[in-house]
């Protein structure tokens, strides 16, 4: 049964990509300047991999839907500095608690991992160099908030 689920998930990841509304090129280019207001923080959540391409992963920030990530996409938002909770749903619900600082960019790498029935979400905070490189490989999703 597990082998069948794994094979199905692999096939789905190779068949095609899920789609979500993408931001316009100008908004994408502006976000990739990584300029943050001195009194705010920016959070970037990106998926720069093809594995799980057919899977949309909903992302929630502090109880509000931010959007759904797909392969080679990213979401970003400006937040008030302080504690925040980011949740991503798949076969599991991955929760990440972090505290942002004014003027800071926070980069979160989201991965789709193989699950039993569907894809599982994994998230981790990465350093600025890795995060910027990952975001530059992706296209910005139109925020849903």
Automatic annotation (TrEMBL):
Keywords on record: Signal
Domain DUF2846 per the UniProt entry, residue ranges: 38-115
Domain of life from the UniProt record: Bacteria
Keyword set includes Signal: yes
Xref: Pfam families: DUF2846 (PF11008)
Signal peptide range in chain numbering: 1-18
InterPro entries: DUF2846, UCP012335
The protein, known as: DUF2846 domain-containing protein
The species this protein was found in: Pseudomonas typographi
